[in-house]
Amino acid sequence: MDKKTAAWIRLGVSSVIALVLVMILIVGISIHQYAFTSDTGDSAVSLEGQTIHAAPGELREIQLDWYDGTVTFVCDDQASDITIKESSSQSIPASKQAYCQYSDGVLTIDFQRSMRFSLFRWKSYKKNLTVTIPASVCDQEHLSMSLNSVSSLIQIQDMTVHNLTTDSVSGQVIFTGSADTIECNTVSGDVQITSLTTPSVISADSVSADIRIQIPANSQFQVSHDGLSGDFTLNGLSESESSDHHYSFDSVSGDILLSAIEN
Asked: What global pTM score does this model have?
């Protein structure tokens, strides 16, 4: 068997696996519950201009589960409290409104309360979320962001985090700031990440989505890539076998670009 035939066989197998995973997601949603919400409990509150006070350096983890719409995280040097605002062009009943919880330095935001529903009777609400975070409350040495999305556009502006983790089906992710560890998994939603500091670890997996990551031009790293029909490109960067920074990329048909930040 030649290499071309083997590659096409791998592509076919990967496509079947991706289709099966999508079908499992659809079936799981229709017979169980919305897969990207968690039970917020009685202590959760509705997001109607919610304001949260956090002590300096207290915020160490942000967890987001969102279905559809736009989510924007903004780091504001002038703000004193965390503010969370939800908006929609539709009238949203109380049972469908987003909920949040803040405890022990962990901020959790859910698209809506966990509930059972039928896929064919469920009404989708496209909702927009804006989260403004004072730079002073972030524990930047340990701050982690875990962002789960179905089809939402998630934007993170001027954030400094230790760990950035994103999981998306078809939603796009755009990050600008600094991150030490980056892990992103996506099916068809494109990912664009710009880190002003050199990450120590990058792990990115895509089915058909394109992934674009920009890091400083003087970054030193080792990189590995496994893919079928997608292209992998290094632009303005070079590998260093002696570096202890490790980057790993896997894709089926999505293109991967790792490039230097343009001045």
From this structure: 0.80
